[in-house]
Amino acid sequence: MSAGRMSGDDPAWVLVGRVMRLRGSKGRLTAGLPGGPSPLAAGQTIRLRRGNQSREHRIATVEHYRDRAILELEGITSAQLAEPLVGSDILLQSKDLVDLPEGTYYIFRLVGLEVRAPGIGVLGKIANVVRTGGADLLLVQGKGDREILIPFARTICRVVDLDSGYIEIDPPEGLLEIDAI
Hints:
The structure is a single chain. The chain has two helices and twelve strands, in the order βββββαβαββββββ. It has helices at 79-82, 107-110; strands at residues 13-23, 28-32, 45-50, 53-65, 68-73, 89-93, 114-117, 121-130, 137-141, 147-151, 157-161, 166-169. A hairpin with a 4-residue loop joins strand 1 (13-23) and strand 2.
């Protein structure tokens, strides 16, 4: 799952994860949080959205484990109360996002950016970011059904301009032809 906005969403709220399952009988929830450090903290208000319904909750406690968080929400004290929340998207107010170190980005900020290469032009738009354990890969949806995987490395992704909505790459020879038949 990639984090990001969906059309029609309130721009003040951004998708940061998904409630994956219950954790124990006291209503704690395991949440998947793709990409980067967890933006969730105790005391924050989150919005849980499932289908066309959403509801705000305050985080009582949060424990972080890699790309997961164990959440305890105020007022959710049993598995019976927590069960309907499983499968919900987790949205956070954009003002509550922590600033990341230079050169690191939230995945939802990358999804939808145009990818350009000098001399070639627009290759497509980023559809997802694939976590590999090494350099992440940008999954670029090109023309037609063409998908291109581009390593998100500084030597290849020379310019990341979030405000203008694009990434300029300098692909090594053969990178763009790897999937060509």
